[in-house]
């Protein structure tokens, strides 16, 4: 290609590159901003009430113990299930509902919404809802994207399924280093205010996250109740 052709092609290439970057930013960062604006992250207008939520299960190594703890302390919760886990552990998924808890859609495969095409991302959300309903007999009442990250279409797809997008206002641990059980308890109790949605995991996270959650949960419930909080179903916030 001649120098002249290269010079003529440069502005075209620059415009294409700028457009591609802009589209990618709109699909990812723009989608995240839009999703966070519409997603429920708490209800400051319901003072004293908090919601317990658990992600990534069901998990035979932790979910049964969590269900026992919640039953012992008469605390409701919402379980955001990965669809393939719900199908794999159908009996346990049904046990969650039998204990009176609500279920949410955490997609079929827990793939990052930013790295899927719009069609694949929408399919992952839709099939996640179908899998949770098939496994539990209960339609998910809410949608939580993996890692809390939306693309530009995620929230709209969830709404067409009749699911409210729900994030959290208190998280039990960070993304870099796992806290001790005591650190997890202190983090949750110290951060919680009335109207908060607390995010924990009965699967996923760090390798030992579900077991630390299982150990921390009784203390979290007791200390929050001692502080005057009451636990309510997620549907009370929707």
Report on this model:
The protein is α/β, with parallel strands linked by helices. It has one domain: Glycoside hydrolase/deacetylase (TIM Barrel). The chain has eight helices and eight strands; from the N terminus they run αβαβααβαβαββαβαβ. It is globular.
Topology:
Elements: H1 3-38, E1 49-55, H2 63-72, E2 77-81, H3 83-88, H4 90-98, E3 102-105, H5 118-136, E4 142-143, H6 154-160, E5 164-165, E6 170-171, H7 181-191, E7 197-201, H8 209-226, E8 230-231
Parallel strand pairs: 1-2, 1-7, 1-8, 2-3, 4-5, 6-7
Q: What's the CATH class label?
A: Alpha Beta
CATH topology value: TIM Barrel
Instruction: Characterize the biggest β-sheet.
Output: 6 strands, parallel
Q: What's the architecture in CATH terms?
A: Alpha-Beta Barrel
Kindly report the oligomeric state of this protein: single chain
Count of spatially separate domains: 1
> How many DSSP helices?
8
The shape, in one word, is globular
Low-confidence stretches: none
Mean pLDDT: 92
Classification by helices and strands: alpha/beta
Q: Roughly what percent helix?
A: 40-55%
What does this entry show, briefly?
By secondary structure, the chain is α/β, with parallel strands linked by helices. The chain has helices at residues 3-38, 63-72, 83-88, 90-98, 118-136, 154-160, 181-191, 209-226, and strands at 49-55, 77-81, 102-105, 142-143, 164-165, 170-171, 197-201, 230-231.
């Amino acid at each position: 290609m001649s120098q002249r052709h290269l010079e003529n092609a440069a502005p075209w290439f620059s415009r294409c590159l700028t457009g591609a970057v802009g589209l990618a930013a709109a699909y990812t960062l723009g989608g995240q901003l839009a999703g966070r604006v519409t997603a429920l992250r708490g209800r400051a207008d319901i003072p004293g009430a908090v919601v317990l939520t658990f992600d990534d299960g069901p998990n035979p190594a932790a979910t049964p113990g969590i269900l026992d703890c919640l039953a012992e302390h008469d605390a409701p919760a919402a379980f955001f299930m990965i669809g393939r886990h719900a199908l794999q552990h159908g009996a346990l998924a049904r046990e969650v509902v039998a204990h009176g808890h609500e279920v949410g859609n955490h997609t079929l495969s827990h793939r990052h919404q930013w790295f899927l095409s719009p069609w694949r991302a929408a399919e992952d959300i839709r099939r996640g809802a179908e899998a949770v309903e098939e496994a539990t007999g209960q339609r998910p009442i809410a949608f939580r994207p993996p890692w809390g990250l939306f693309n530009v279409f995620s929230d709209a797809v969830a709404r067409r399924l009749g699911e409210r997008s729900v994030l959290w206002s208190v998280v039990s641990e960070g993304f870099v280093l796992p806290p001790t059980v005591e650190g997890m308890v202190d983090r949750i109790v110290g951060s919680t205010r009335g109207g908060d949605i607390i995010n924990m995991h009965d699967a996923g996270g760090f390798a030992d996250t579900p077991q630390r959650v299982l150990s921390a949960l009784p203390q979290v419930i007791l200390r929050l109740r001692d502080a005057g909080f009451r636990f309510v179903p997620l549907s009370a916030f929707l």
